[in-house]
Amino acid sequence: MLGVFGLKIGLIGVGTIGGFLVKRIQEDSSLELCFVLDIDPEKVKDFSEDIVINSISEMGAKKPDLVIEAASQQAIGQYAEHVLSTTNFLVLSVGAFADKGLEEKVKGLCKSNGTKLFAPSGAIAAIDLLKAMQSELEEVEIVSRKNPKGWGREDSEKTIIFEGTAREACKAYPKNINISATVSLNGIGFDKTTVKLVSDPDCGGNRHTLNVKHAFGNFVLDVKAQPTKNPKTSSTAAYSAFDLVKKIQNGINIF
């Protein structure tokens, strides 16, 4: 039985981060996992039949307070309308909003249905400062370095594999680039944020450097984290997602 601030949660995507969230939710007596949905039947075969749904149309009967997307950019486009018509949506694949049409559609759904969209800061920090300085920002650059496996490559030496705007990066590397999207959404936008992606065999973890120039000076943030079992995903992204779940549950608005 849920506590006073109990939260019923539905989960779309049971991969690396989704699996982490399942464990954390099931360990917390104030949270209830009311459904899981994944396009791969193998990923949900160990769940009890009463929480596995095969289509988002079955979601309504579960009455979730919050649905978490931990699947892909495509999943947001596919499920956002159905989810936001009745409940709140926490999304991890924020690179999907490099599509201007989808971003505007989701904003409209939230406004017309009185529901909310949440996104964790993921594997980057200082998002609160970036957002606070939004009107004074002049230049924002994000440099992401990963082992070649994290990019799906086999480089034997350090290689710059991409330089361009965040919008271009999100389309070119949809499974790797949520940090650039998070920075863009909270900063100067997808078209003004510049991105450099580096494949580095000597990079011991996933490293992200944020370089910001604003009207009163500048700041540099350097974050390094070990990848999860999936080399494309930083371990901090999973913790950030669950932390946001608890903040939503407790009504804390410092995201």
TrEMBL record:
Record pathway: Cofactor biosynthesis; NAD(+) biosynthesis; iminoaspartate from L-aspartate (dehydrogenase route): step 1/1
Aspartate dehydrogenase domain span: 156-241
Family assignment from sequence similarity: Belongs to the L-aspartate dehydrogenase family.
Keyword Amino-acid biosynthesis: no
Function: Specifically catalyzes the NAD or NADP-dependent dehydrogenation of L-aspartate to iminoaspartate.
UniProt EC number: 1.4.1.21
Organism (species): Candidatus Iainarchaeum sp
Listed NCBIfam families: PRK13303.1-3, PRK13303.1-4
Protein name: L-aspartate dehydrogenase
Domain of life, per lineage: Archaea
Origin organism lineage: Archaea, Candidatus Iainarchaeota, Candidatus Iainarchaeia, Candidatus Iainarchaeales, Candidatus Iainarchaeaceae
Alphabetized Pfam families for the sequence: Asp_DH_C (PF01958), NAD_binding_3 (PF03447)
Reactions accelerated catalytically: L-aspartate + NADP(+) + H2O = oxaloacetate + NH4(+) + NADPH + H(+); L-aspartate + NAD(+) + H2O = oxaloacetate + NH4(+) + NADH + H(+)
